[in-house]
Write a structure and sequence with these properties.
Structural class: alpha+beta
Largest sheet: 6 strands, antiparallel
Strand content: 15-25%
Shape: globular
Distance between the termini: 28 Å
CATH architecture of the largest domain: Sandwich
Length: 293
């Protein structure tokens, strides 16, 4: 019996494209190790079943289930049925902040919860397939239409049964935000996405939204559960994760190319997120056959 194929992250996958919008409709692959990325992830199970290990909980999903979670925390699809098909998207935060969701959901998702709903219908099967087709059309107007439809579909969750896993929050939930605050956070996310590989700080980021740095730090933290520096580091670490997959990767070069000012800062941030050093991460992936040319 042939071995089951497994997921291999790389520079062209979501880990190496931390500012990219992606849509998919395919057979999922088992992940041998947890990964992370700087987008919110939407999964709709078209057929079969899958099992996820999240940072602090596990979830099992079957055909007709849909989930939404923040990909910035390590997660792993560690099991699935042979007939599994799933669809969905990786949404940069700028799109996530366009969503009109119940006031507690945004903060819960950004601090590690997973939203799960079984309130789906046959139209979802057709729509996710169509959105993926639109996304791959190469036409920006068609892609934008697919994104807008997907966001509206996600907003429908507030009118139907859903659950958050875990059920209780581990931290205080954030308060509601006015639309101007959300627009400011979106503008900051746009600026960070375009410049995270360079030497930027909170003053530069706040200027992009035309607000005071202290106010910028405050609304970003309340809205995402992260500081501006933590979010920038996440983008850089996501990019670095993909670079480390290359056969000739050099850890120091990866640190510099990912926007870290020093190897020590890179090692400290990487260890905090991945639970291991960049060198150990690369060694594990190499022994598992994860490297790319």
């Amino acid at each position: 019996m042939p071995e089951r194929p497994f997921y291999q992250p790389g520079a062209s996958s979501v880990e190496g494209l931390p500012m990219a919008l992606q849509m998919f409709h395919n057979h999922p692959l088992v992940m041998l190790k947890p990964h992370w990325h700087a987008q919110v992830e939407v999964n709709f199970i078209v057929r079969g079943s899958v099992h996820y290990r999240m940072a602090e909980h596990e979830i099992s999903l079957s055909a007709g289930d849909m989930c939404l979670f923040w990909g910035g925390l390590p997660h792993q699809m560690d099991d699935l049925s042979d007939d599994a098909i799933y669809a969905g998207a990786h949404l940069p935060l700028v799109h996530f902040f366009r969503l009109h969701l119940p006031t507690d959901i945004r903060h819960r998702l950004m601090t590690g919860a997973t939203l799960v709903t079984s309130a789906t219908d046959p139209a979802d099967h057709h729509n996710f397939e169509r959105w993926n087709r639109y996304f791959r059309s190469g036409d920006p107007a068609i892609t934008e239409h697919a994104v807008n439809e997907l966001l509206l579909r996600l907003e429908r969750v507030r009118f139907e049964p859903y659950r958050l896993v875990p059920e209780t929050a581990s931290q205080e939930t954030g308060g509601p935000f006015d639309q101007q605050s959300l627009r400011n956070v979106g503008r900051m996310c746009d600026f960070i996405a375009e410049n995270f590989l360079y030497d930027i700080d909170c003053v530069d980021i706040a200027a992009a939204a035309d607000i005071h740095p202290k106010y910028a730090m405050s609304i970003f933290k309340k809205s995402t559960g992260m500081t501006l520096n933590e979010y920038m580091n996440l983008l850089r670490l996501s990019y670095a994760q993909a670079l480390l997959m290359h056969e000739d990767a050099n850890v120091l070069r990866v640190a510099m190319d990912s926007g870290f000012g020093s190897l020590s800062a890179f090692n400290k941030s990487f260890r905090k997120l991945a639970g291991m050093s960049p060198s150990d991460f690369r060694r594990e992936r190499t022994s598992a056959g994860y490297t790319v040319l």
